């Protein structure tokens, strides 16, 4: 067997292991967001949110009074003055407080990239091993 083919086989075997392991983790996951990236961060923000107050400026803008830094949340634009919401595409602590205040689903404010379904889809494809060299179809002009 060509050394390159052997190397490709090893790489494919490694990818198959990684995909299988991650697919199994995603299947066992019961949370809406990925546990390590979205869910843990959001839970920490929920704990901080209990100590903050909301001032309604109009029907889409809210000021969140925080001890460290106040946050100006605009729900239609999906922005917060702390800029973490725009950067992470995950609700910052100010947005979490506003969602609680309005009884909105916090998860609906998170990007789809953090969801378990996106995680599952990323590893849903099957990786097939390289066929034995006798079965290869090689075009004449190659
Ligand atoms: Zn914020």
TrEMBL record:
InterPro entries xrefs: Znf_PMZ (IPR006564), Znf_SWIM (IPR007527)
The UniProt record lists the keyword Zinc-finger: yes
Domain SWIM-type intervals: 62-103
Pfam families: SWIM
Organism superkingdom: Eukaryota
Keyword vocabulary terms for this entry: Metal-binding, Zinc, Zinc-finger
Protein name (record): Uncharacterized protein LOC107880899
Organism: Prunus mume (Japanese apricot)
């Amino acid at each position: 067997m060509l050394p390159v083919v052997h190397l490709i086989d090893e790489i494919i075997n490694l990818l198959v292991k990684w995909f299988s392991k991650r697919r199994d983790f995603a299947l066992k996951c019961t949370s809406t967001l990925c546990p390590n990236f979205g869910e843990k961060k959001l839970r920490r923000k929920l704990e901080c949110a209990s100590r903050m107050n909301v001032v309604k400026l109009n029907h889409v803008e809210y000021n969140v009074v925080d001890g460290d830094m106040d946050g100006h949340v605009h729900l239609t634009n999906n922005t917060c003055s702390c800029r973490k919401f725009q950067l992470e595409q995950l609700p910052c602590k100010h947005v979490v407080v506003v969602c609680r205040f309005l009884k909105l689903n916090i998860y609906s404010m998170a990007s789809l990239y953090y969801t378990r379904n996106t995680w599952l889809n990323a590893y849903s494809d099957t990786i097939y091993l390289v066929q034995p060299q006798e079965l290869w179809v090689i075009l004449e002009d190659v």
